[in-house]
């Protein structure tokens, strides 16, 4: 385990360096400038370039940026005067993590339940209906689901808050928008795993020993079918991370996703780069934790 952790922490650091490097140089080649105010004179722009260190050679800017990141400093926002990017991100990070975890938990738990129901009712009308629902959930992007939920539950039926963050009611619609694709993916995957498990020799042997269908399912099929689902957590976390940016914007949630979206048209490069790095780090940590959990849940898995 220690060898595995050291190896993957090293891989994580190298990957993070690649992300930092790519994000830095991509920002340099993006068209336009963050100084969009027509009232700014050349002298004022020169002063601002000096303030942000943009008057230095590119290689020096890059090394300075790397050094600052190692000390937890993502620079200063171009649009929020004298605001540290690190502070801007970490003020909003908790909101995004809360939203993502809530969506992930709701999606996985509901998907496991519905997937099990679908597997136990294989090839009947209920299974067909649930398969259609899960297919729709996979096919429709999260932001479209969010807009539909907002339209019906917010505007037409006035059942839940339209936007904002702070109460449980305000978390329901955005969490559902992100959870539905997760639910659909888990449902389909768990259904197929359950069906395959129920047809294995050891399950047939358990039935031959006189165990009831419920006992076989609860004692053997659920656990063995659930372990492969853990492999989906990393990709699903990635989907939630990418989807949350638009969802936060749609529901006016003060998370880093909303901040990322609003920083793009204003060309607030430090915020864009800082948010990209934090997103990448969160994703890599999620995948690492998933691998460790899988190895603990299934001793047959060897980390290497």
TrEMBL record:
One of its GO terms (biological process) is transmembrane transport. The keyword Membrane applies. Residues 93-294 form the ABC transmembrane type-1 domain. Belongs to the binding-protein-dependent transport system permease family. GO terms for cellular component: plasma membrane. Keywords: Cell membrane, Membrane, Transmembrane, Transmembrane helix, Transport. It is a multi-pass membrane protein. This is ABC transporter, permease protein.
């Amino acid at each position: 385990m220690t060898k595995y952790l050291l190896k993957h922490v090293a891989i994580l650091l190298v990957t993070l360096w690649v992300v930092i490097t790519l994000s830095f140089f991509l920002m340099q080649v993006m068209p336009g400038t963050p100084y969009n105010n027509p009232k700014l004179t050349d002298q004022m722009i020169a002063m601002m370039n000096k303030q942000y260190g943009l008057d230095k050679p590119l290689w020096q800017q890059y090394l300075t940026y790397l050094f600052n990141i190692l000390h937890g400093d993502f620079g200063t926002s171009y649009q929020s005067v004298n605001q540290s990017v690190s502070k801007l991100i970490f003020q909003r990070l908790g909101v995004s993590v809360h939203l993502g975890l809530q969506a992930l938990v709701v999606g996985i738990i509901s998907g496991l339940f519905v997937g099990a129901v679908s597997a136990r009712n294989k090839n009947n009308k209920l299974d067909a209906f649930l398969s259609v629902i899960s297919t729709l959930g996979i096919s429709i992007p999260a932001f479209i689901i969010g807009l539909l939920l907002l339209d019906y539950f917010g505007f037409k039926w006035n059942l839940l808050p339209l936007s904002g963050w702070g109460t449980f009611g305000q978390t329901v619609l955005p969490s559902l928008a992100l959870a539905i694709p997760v639910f659909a993916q888990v449902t389909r995957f768990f259904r197929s795993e359950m069906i395959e498990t129920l047809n294995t020799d050891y399950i047939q042997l358990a039935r031959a020993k006189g165990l009831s269908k419920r006992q076989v399912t609860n004692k053997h099929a659920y656990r063995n079918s659930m372990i492969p689902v853990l492999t989906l957590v990393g990709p699903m976390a990635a989907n939630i991370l990418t989807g949350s940016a638009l969802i936060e914007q749609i529901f006016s949630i003060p998370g880093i996703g909303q901040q990322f979206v609003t920083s793009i048209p204003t060309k607030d490069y430090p915020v864009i780069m800082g948010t990209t790095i934090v997103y990448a780090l969160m994703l890599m940590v999620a995948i690492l934790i998933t691998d460790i959990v899988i190895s603990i849940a299934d001793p047959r898995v060897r980390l290497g």
